[in-house]
Amino acid sequence: MEEKKVFTSEIKNLVDKWKDKEGNLIMILHEIQNHHGYVPRELALELSSMLEVPLARIYEVITFYNFFKLSPPGKHRISVCMGTACYLKGAPEIIKEIKNILHVEEGRTTQDGNFHLDVVRCLGCCGLAPVVMIDGKVYGKVKKQEIMDIISTYVKEEE
Amino acid sequence: MYTRTILVKDTGSGTEDKTREVYTKLLDLLRTDKLEDQVQVVRVADIGFYNKGVVIKVLPENTLYVDVKEGDLARLVQATVKEDKPVEGLAQKKEPKQIRIVLRNCGRINPESIEEYIGQDGYRALTKVLLELNPEKVIEEMKKSGLRGRGGAGYPTWMKWKFTRQVAADQKFVICNADEGDPGAYMDRSVLESDPHSVIEGLIIAAYAIGASKGYFYIRAEYPLAVERIKKALAQAYEYGLLGKSILGTDFSFDIDIRLGAGAFVCGEETALIASIEGKRGTPRPRPPYPSVKGLWDKPTAINNVETLANVPYIFLKGADAFARVGTQTSKGTKVFALTGKVRNSGLVEVPMGITLREIVYDIGGGTVSGKNVKAVQTGGPSGGVIPREFLDTPVDYENLQKLGSIMGSGGMIVMDEDDCMVDIAKFYLGFCVDESCGKCAPCRIGGFQMLGVLARIAEGKGKADDPAILKRISFAMQKASLCGLGQGSPNPVLSTLKYFTSEYKEHIENKKCPAGKCVDLLNYSIIQEKCKRCSVCFTNCPVKAIEGNREEGYKILLDKCVKCERCFEVCKFKAIARK
Amino acid sequence: MEKLTPEKLERLSRTSKHKAKNWIRVGMSTCGIAAGAGEVYAAFVEEARKRNLQVEVQKCGCLGMCYAEPLVEVNVEGAPQVVYGKVTKEIAVKILEKHVVSKMLVNDYIFTMET
Predict the structure, then answer these.
(1) Do B281 and A24 touch (CB under 8 A)?
(2) Could you read off the pLDDT of B226-262 as tens digits, one per residue?
(3) Interchain contact C33–A (C-beta under 8 A)
(4) pTM, whole model, 2 decimals?
(5) What is the CATH number of the domain that holds A136?
(6) Confidence of residue A1 (pLDDT cuts 50, 70, 90)
(7) CA-CA distance, B31 to B576, in Å (whole number)?
(8) For B81-90, B161-170, B327-336, C21-30, which range has the lowest pLDDT when averaged over its residues?
(9) From CA B460, how far away is CA B493, in angstroms rounded?
(10) Looking at the complex, does the CB of residue B437 fall below 8 Å from at least one CB of chain A?
(11) Distance, in angstroms, between A112 CA and closest chain C CA?
């Protein structure tokens, strides 16, 4: 059973900070996701009563924006850039290779929960295309043959 | 200490790099004349010229010599070093291709220090505006400058400000649109990260001009460093009283807050962006009423892009006339492009309007990495179009690009070479727009999806003869009937590739071939027997046993079993797998 | 901090001009950091301190030549001001020893800028 997510006092403070500002919902969701890595349903429910807005309003927003996640991300988050420069310089092959190595589909987490694969739109490092970002660290000019080495450093960390 | 420096670089496209040779030769010449203690010779990695033979630059005079022959070296040393003058008939004049207005401080100052910005005349434009000009005069100056919105559409900034000013309201807003979503463009990120105060100063001036009391930065959450630097910069500006109550001791007060985007391309559209700041789904609404009349929380709102705002302090610092001297009749100033793709020097370039695409791609970008011909240049991202190489001499401005079926856009400029398939490119951009369509209006939601289906089948070799006509028909409907710029612009990559690369589409549809070798379904793999060394690597690596044969008789690929995974193509060390 | 008036801004502007004669600027925006600028910056600070060099190591934004990141601009008295590209920790040491100390430019890593 997954442990029940509750608002920590920290998040409560953040919500309080935003509570009286107009148009606060997206900023609060950012705060929640920053903390948990996704927006847990329990928190969305609680938020609904705190802000006195229907749950549907909150989910309407969460599901509209790509950035917000409804399920917990993997331990390591791999984002492969699919901006135009990266696309031209071989990003599709890199995605294929990662999928092969980790047996995972786009937007999914590996069975052991260690890696989450995302295909993202332009990380803004086009000069280094193709680009892969793992947990905020950017790997530039990635070659297909290097993927295995890059991923294995994270696998070792787990062992 | 050296009194002179000679920089050398062989920029020729020849196979042999002569840099080292020329370098040694120059050293020898200097040694003969016993000048080696006064002049240093340095090999450089990049001298700003491409395919111009041996290039030599002499410092501190900054004299340039291109295509220097070995026989010229002695003369060059004699004149520049001993006689203190350039070699006549050999020295070159190079007008700089780039002009830095928007990027004036980028890479020159510490972006986290407001003092360094102030040291570069930062916030001086604001002082001038608040002390010497009334809002009408500010708008008048903006009109004189001719600055047009750098976010894509090129709407004159002064008109936007004037309309917002004209509407009577108890509160007005200004917004800096920093939701740079165009894949392949990152000018705004760079400016926010490298010179955040110039954008803030621009926003304060905009607020003063239209009479706004509150402003927002709407920044992509995917740009954490940009968000952090803007946050820091805002805090510093508050501390110095450049934001908040009574700015610089005047009676003008203005506050700025940050709102984060959350990964929706459509939020770059004004009305969608407003909805997002209000905390709602970022769906656009019909215009009019324009945001200048009914914007954020139904109040008059002016929305300007990052690059537009970064131009504003410069205009008031150097004068509208100085700004308007750069550029063409209709498009003033400079434009920052994120030059990427198959180009050698990918990076940010800031060029005067009116420069040709060829100058950008070849003189600044250094041509293609592969040395292959440029096939096309794409501008404007998913709402833009491809411009084939026949039109590389077109001067870049808003009107010219539009005439060619593309747009200026926010500043992505992607260079494509002969290995890029135009059907594939159209599919890529359209796929992006279909993903990012908010789904509110049918032309965009359904039209895009249907077109993507047609393109997919063309790429798979199942295209039908009337597919181009279908694509054009749907495109037309989307352009006319979509609610916002995303839907209206998304057919552009399809239409422009159809227009300029008709034969490539035909080749896909009629002959089931992809000339660029990109569309996997149209490729067949075979073994080139002359190159094959019968090493059996492909045979053992094929996951579906589609390669048969043995070391004695050689191997062949069984096309009916082949799943086109390209494994054999990758593992073959002798390039003996043909892909056609 | 004191709130500025136009006069105080003017004064601050004058006193805030670059004072250091010898400086090294490391480009620290997303591209640069992704290419390893953080490490390079640390190397400059550390090695300059070890050698007790009179040179100010500064962070700055993006010069725009993303293809050559990490970019480092160097200005020391007695040598031309240049931009080095594709700088690593090893090259950083070389730049300090050759360019900063001996006023000799380092071969093969200079990327000339037009402006």
Answers:
(1) no
(2) 999 999 999 999 999 999 999 999 999 999 999 999 9
(3) yes
(4) 0.92
(5) 3.40.30.10
(6) very low
(7) 52
(8) B81-90
(9) 19
(10) no
(11) 28
pLDDT of residue C115: 44
pLDDT given for residue B13 in this prediction: 67
Q: Is the Cβ pair C34, A140 closer than 8 Å?
A: yes
> Is the domain of A85 the same as that of A120?
yes
CB contact under 8 A, C85 and B46: yes
Phi, psi dihedrals of residue B340, rounded to the nearest 5°: -140, -170
| Cβ–Cβ below 8 Å for B279 and A85 | no
% of chain B exceeding 70 in pLDDT: 100
Chains A, B: CB contacts under 8 A, how many?
107
d(CA B397, CA B352): 9
Go through chain C and tell me how many residues it has. Answer: 115
**From CA B498, how far away is CA B468, in angstroms rounded?**
7
Instruction: State whether C80 and B348 contact (CB < 8 Å).
Output: no
- Closest listed residue to residue A30, CA positions, set A60, A9, A61, A5: A61
Cβ within 8 Å, pair B344-C67:
yes
Q: Is the predicted pLDDT of residue C114 greater than 70, yes or no? A: no
Does C86 contact B45 at a Cβ distance shorter than 8 Å? yes
Q: Do C65 and B347 touch (CB under 8 A)?
A: yes
Q: What proportion of chain C, given as a percentage, has pLDDT over 70?
A: 97
Boundaries of domain holding A132: 76-158
Shared-domain flag, residues A39 and A84:
no
Could you tell me if A60 and A29 lie in one domain?
yes
- Which residue segments constitute the domains of chain B, with CATH numbers given? 4-92 (3.40.30.10), 114-322 (3.40.50.11540), 334-417 (3.10.20.600), 422-510 (1.20.1440.230), 524-579 (3.30.70.20)
B-proximal residues of A, 83-122, CB under 8 Å: 83-85, 87-89, 120-122
CB proximity B278 to A under 8 Å: yes
Of C62, C103, C111, the CB nearest to B193: C62
Which residues of B fall within a CB distance of 8 Å from A120? 222
- Compare all CA atoms of chain C with the CA of A138 and give the residue at the minimum distance: C34
Tell whether A91 and A119 lie within a shared domain.
yes
In chain C, the domains with their CATH numbers are: 19-102 (3.40.30.10)
CA distance B68 to B161: 53
- Peptide bond just before B86 cis, omega within 30 deg: no
Q: What is the pLDDT of residues B437-474, one digit of tens each?
A: 999 999 999 999 999 999 999 999 999 999 999 999 99
Q: How many residues does chain A have?
A: 159
Same domain, A27 and A95: no
Any A CB within 8 A of C42 CB: no
Q: For the segment B139-159, what is each residue's pLDDT rounded down to a tens digit?
A: 999 999 999 999 888 999 999
Q: Give the 3-state DSSP-derived string for B551-573, with helices as H, strands as E and coil as C.
A: CCCEEEECCCCCCCCCHHHHHCC
Contact B59, C80 (CB under 8 A): yes
Cis status, amide bond into B395, omega within 30 of 0: no
Taking CB atoms and an 8 Å limit, are B222 and A66 in contact across chains?
A: no
Whether residues A43 and A106 share a domain: the answer is: no
For chain A, what is the domain count? 2
A25, A47: one domain = yes
> Are residues A84 and A42 part of one domain?
no
Query: Residues 103..132 of A with a Cβ closer than 8 Å to C: which?
Result: 123-128, 131
Assigned token pair, C58: 């500064």
pLDDT higher than 80, residue A7 = no
Q: Render pLDDT for C44-67 as a digit per residue (tens, 0 to 9).
A: 999 999 999 999 999 999 888 888
